[in-house]
Design goal:
With about 90 residues, the protein is an all-alpha fold. The protein is about 70% helix and about 0% strand. The protein has helices at about 5-20, 25-40, 50-65, 70-85.
């Protein structure tokens, strides 16, 4: 798969998540958050009104620090596809 194809699939996965109106599990949201930030090269500091949530976000980012931008996009796509495939 080319980088351009990955970009297209990634944006489709992002749109799919943004269009979904039901709540997501917290652990799933943290993984999406981390892979999205890495995929988009967004290096801004995690923030939340609750320090514990900021800590969880920081930890999620720390866990994926050694993957490439394309790997992050592909993992994000796989997470989204698996979620919608197996959700009840």
């Amino acid at each position: 798969m080319t980088s351009e194809e990955i970009d297209i699939e990634f944006m489709e996965a992002v749109d799919r998540i943004n269009d979904y109106t039901e709540p997501f599990p917290a652990d799933f949201l943290l993984r999406l958050y981390a892979y999205y930030k890495k995929a988009t090269n967004d290096y801004s500091r995690p923030s939340s009104s609750k320090p514990l949530i900021t800590a969880f976000k920081t930890n999620a980012l720390f866990q994926i620090q050694n993957i490439s931008q394309d790997e992050a996009k592909q993992t994000y796509i796989a997470l989204v596809n698996n979620y919608f495939l197996y959700r009840k």
